[in-house]
Amino acid sequence: MKREGNDIVFQVVNYIIFGIFALICVYPFYYIVINTISANDLVDKGKIVFFPRGIHFSNYVDMLQRNGIARSAVVSVLRTVLGTGLSVLGASYMAFCFTKQKMWAKKFWYRFVVVTMYFSAGMIPVYLNIKMLGLLDTFWVYIIPGMFPVYNMILVKTFMESIPPSLEESAEIDGAGFLTRYFRIALPLSLPIIATVALFSMVGQWNSFMDTLLYIRDYNLYTLQYILYEYLNESESLAQMAQEGMDMSNAAQNMTPTSMRLTITVIVTLPIMLVYPFMQRYFVEGIMIGAVKG
Amino acid sequence: MEESVKAKSLHKKSKREGYMIFLYALPTIIFVFIFSYLPLRGWIYSIYNYQPGLPISECEFVGMKYFTKLFSNPVMRMNLFNSLRNTFAMVGLGILTSPLPMIFAIFLSEMRSKGFKKFVQTVTTMPHFISWIIMYSLVFSMLNVNNGFVNTLLVQMGVIEEPVNFLASQKHVWITMKGYELWKELGWSAIVYLAAIAGIDQELYEAAMVDGANRLQRIWHITVPGMIETFFVLLIMSLGNFLNTGMEQYYVFQNAMNKDYIQVLDLYVYNIGIGNGQISYATAIGIMKSLVAVIMFGFVNWLSKTVRGYSMF
Fold it and tell me: Is B104 in the same domain as B20?
């Protein structure tokens, strides 16, 4: 009986602690969402805490019409779609090549490639290299440097090695060439891991910020993440100005620095939130293969 | 005689096939060379007085000047040591908090309700997928001095009279930075341990229960041993990677007030290289960082070979 009592206490405490942690994880997201659809003057005073008040959606309409937001959304979507597609093809093609035991000096070349995960020439030399290649201030700097991601290649290769070799051998006897075997057999059979890798690189592309910061000056090529960063800095200074005695008696629907910042945050976060439920079952597999391979 | 000719031609054929496959792989290898090896050429800028825009042949050769000056010039030395101190502080906190994902996984897996477990896992993993920019925006919404959630709440409850500017404070910078990181990554890092727990034979628990082991004893003698190897592998790997804190997190959170404590090595390289245009200094620091990283990886690999019997990479 005593043990059962202990057990109940344990379970209750456990539930409470995890419940609080879950709340801390969810609440900031909830907070920004309700604050973008509430009356902006209340928001500015920090009055919206648990429920939205004076619901309106004009912030989103305003924000999406604002110069630069729609354009940078296009840049973000394009780089995500194109970058993910090409890097998945690149990683899986490279992986397919390295599953071939017969490749000349395979061990050496595999190490040659894998070792690049563990050293980097450093930020400045990489920057100068990108500059030398003429990628500075072009859209392609988002796509090309990440076309053959080594870590993803290792994940795909590990998966491909578990495919029975007899499938490929019989295709080879039927006269299928190297590329045919890649496109018709190895690629379709690796779809589960391809999905994982694609999700990783999608998130990476969408969230990427450093490359814009380092390589892009042309504001036509700014991504949503970068625009958000600019708004964060700007609204900080705007907020400071407001504090120094600016008249802030705005109507409920007039944009304030706070509502601008919050609205664009939601716009940038939303795509991730929308795909997240679908990716959950894929990423566990990716982590496991990654952990085993180290 | 005929046999050996046949074998020879077979050998020849397979050799040719090997070359063919290599040719198929060659474009990818060249690509890796261009984007990962070619930048090493840029190390040369550390021994020249590099002026952006000038070809290297017209720059003044200065030898090891930048390397020695990093240590002999008091200001440079102080900045370098400062950023090293910050990096090591973050590493130290990282080691201290490294058992947390394991503990998280153990207690989560002890939970009875499958639905609640799933819910907790879903919402705690989610922050891993947002960028540090969004993260900063969330933190700013919670903590800013004008209308942040925490300040509003504390003022209303009468805990504080004036709002506190948490984000521009230079107190506890390391701990708050580690805290943000934990909030973002704890659920994600726990996944690998949850999978390890799922792989433990259930019969072990049943047998232990028959023998009268209580919950803590079962955790300590069955669950923990089942994932301790994963724990050490991940810990060792993070040690091998210790200088690569990345700079995104520190970049978005840095401001004039907390700069002394937030500037880790990666951010320092950015700030002096891109921010101040001191290309040669930044390259010199980058080179030393890369060399230390290679040595650390060699060491970690050796450690893994001696302790676990196989190489890490």
Answer: no
